[in-house]
Design brief:
Number of strands: 14
Order of helices and strands: HEEEHEEEEEEEEEEHEH
GO molecular function: extracellular ligand-gated monoatomic ion channel activity; transmembrane signaling receptor activity; zinc ion binding
Structural class: alpha+beta
Number of helices: 4
Oligomer: single chain
Signal peptide: 1-22
GO cellular component, one term: membrane
Protein name: B box-type domain-containing protein
Radius of gyration: 42 Å
Distance between the termini: 114 Å
Strand content: 15-25%
Subcellular location: Membrane
Length: 388
C-alpha cells in the first residue's frame, strides 16, 4: 500500500481576556453593570483626551528632549530567500512603545489600560518608522487593519502592527553550498532627526515564533545594534537588527541646564561649563561670566590652529615618505643587488674548490691502482720463476 505525506492545518481563534480579579460575592448582574460603567468610563476619558490632542506633533516636540521609542520584532515566518535576486521575505509583528504625557488619565476607577479601535488609533500620533532596506512592504488589512494600540494611565503607548516585506540581502556565494549569509533589516525615522525621535531596541530585539524555519537555510542567531548616520541635510538614527545593550543616553550631550531645565545661554570661566540665565544669579553668583558666542569663537580658533598643525605634520610625513621612495629605497635596492652579486661570486668559488678537490682525489686513486697493478705483476713473475 502506497503512503503519502499529509499535513493537518488547525485554525485557532483566540479571544483576549483582560486578567482582572473580580471582587468576591459579585453576581452576574453586578458584573454586567461594572462592565458597562467601565465602557462608559473609557469613552468619556477618550473623548476628553482627544478634544485637546493634536496628532500632528510628537511628544516633547517643543522641548529639547527626544521621545524614546522602543522597538521589537516578533518574527512569524521567513520565506523566499532568493540568491539570484539577493532578497529575502519575512512576516512579523512590529512592536513599538513610547510615552506620550498628553495621553495620561486618572486611575481612581482602577482602570489599568485602554485598548483603542483602529478608527481611534488614527487620531493618535505614532512614530514614522520606515524600512530602508526593503524592496516591497505591506501592512495586513484583513479582516480589518492588523493594528493594536493600548494606552496606560502614565501615558505609555504600546503599538503593534503586522508587516510582511521583501528585503535586500547582498549575498556572498563563493562558499556555496556551505555559505553563511548576513541579511540586515534597517529601520529609521523618515521625517525626524534623533533630536526629535530616538529609537532603541527592546531586548531581545528579534524574537521568533516557535517552529519558524526555512526549507533550504538554517536560521542562525540574530544580532542587533543602533547607529547614527549623517545625511547631507540632517542626522538620523538608524536601527538595524540586532543590538548590543548600550545605554546611549550617556552619549547624548545635554543642551539644557540640569538645575533649571532651561537652555544654556552663558559660559562660566571659573567652572568652565555652560550655564543658563538663572544660574548667573544662583549657582554661579560672583563668577566670571561671558557669552557662549565669545567662548565658541575662541574655541574655533584653537581648533583651526590644531587642524593646521595636523595638516603640516601630515605634509611633513608625506615628504618623508616621498624622500624614502626616491633615495632610501634606491640605496636599499643597490645594496641588495651588490650583496646578491657577492653571494653569487662566493658560490662560484666554492663550486670550483669542490671540483678541484674531487679531481685531486680521483688522481690519487688512479695512481694507487697503477702501483697495485705493478706490484701484482711483479709477484706473479716471481712465482713463475720459482715454479720453473
Amino acid at each position: 500500500m502506497r503512503h503519502f505525506r499529509s499535513v493537518n492545518i488547525i485554525f485557532v481563534l483566540w479571544n483576549c481576556i483582560q486578567n482582572v480579579k473580580p471582587e468576591a460575592n459579585y453576581d452576574n448582574h453586578n458584573a454586567t453593570v461594572q462592565q458597562n460603567e467601565n465602557g462608559m468610563l473609557r469613552q468619556s476619558i477618550l473623548e476628553e483626551m482627544l478634544s485637546t490632542y493634536d496628532k500632528r506633533f510628537p511628544p516633547h516636540y517643543n522641548d529639547v528632549i527626544p521621545v524614546k521609542v522602543k522597538v521589537q520584532m516578533y518574527v512569524l515566518s521567513v520565506f523566499e530567500i532568493d540568491a539570484s535576486e539577493m532578497t529575502f521575505s519575512i512576516s512579523m509583528f512590529l512592536r513599538q512603545e513610547w510615552v506620550d504625557r498628553r495621553l495620561q488619565f486618572d486611575t481612581k476607577e482602577n482602570l489599568s489600560n485602554i485598548s483603542l479601535d483602529n478608527e481611534i488609533t488614527k487620531e493618535i500620533w505614532v512614530p514614522d518608522l520606515a524600512f530602508t532596506s526593503d524592496t516591497h512592504t505591506y501592512f495586513h488589512e484583513l479582516t480589518r487593519p492588523n493594528r493594536l494600540m493600548i494606552i496606560y494611565p502614565n501615558g505609555k503607548v504600546v503599538y503593534s502592527i503586522r508587516v510582511t516585506g521583501k528585503f535586500t540581502c547582498f549575498m556572498d556565494l563563493t562558499k556555496f553550498p556551505f555559505d553563511e549569509q548576513r541579511c540586515p533589516i534597517e529601520l529609521e525615522s523618515y521625517g525626524f532627526t534623533n533630536s526629535i525621535i530616538s529609537f532603541q531596541w527592546t531586548e531581545p530585539a528579534a524574537a521568533f515564533r516557535d517552529g519558524v524555519k526555512h526549507s533550504q537555510f538554517e536560521l542562525g542567531e540574530t544580532q542587533s545594534y543602533t547607529r547614527n548616520l549623517t545625511y547631507s541635510t540632517a542626522t538620523k538614527r538608524h536601527t538595524i537588527t540586532d543590538s548590543h545593550s548600550i545605554d546611549r543616553s550617556t552619549l547624548i550631550q545635554k543642551l539644557v541646564c540640569e538645575h533649571h531645565n532651561v537652555e544654556f545661554s552663558y559660559y562660566c570661566r571659573d567652572c568652565e561649563c555652560l550655564i543658563c540665565a538663572q544660574c548667573v544669579t544662583s549657582v554661579h553668583t560672583g563668577h566670571s561670566i561671558t557669552n557662549i558666542a565669545e567662548v565658541a569663537g575662541k574655541a574655533r580658533e584653537v581648533v583651526k590652529k590644531r587642524l593646521q598643525q595636523i595638516k603640516d605634520n601630515i605634509k611633513s610625513l608625506s615628504d618623508l615618505i616621498e624622500d624614502f621612495k626616491t633615495t632610501k629605497q634606491t640605496d636599499i635596492q643597490t645594496g641588495t643587488d651588490n650583496f646578491i652579486k657577492e653571494v653569487n661570486e662566493v658560490s662560484q668559488d666554492l663550486i670550483r674548490l669542490i671540483e678541484s678537490i674531487a679531481e685531486i682525489n680521483l688522481t690519487h686513486a688512479s695512481d694507487f691502482l697503477v702501483l697495485e697493478k705493478q706490484q701484482l705483476l711483479y709477484n706473479v713473475a716471481k712465482v713463475r720463476k720459482i715454479t720453473q
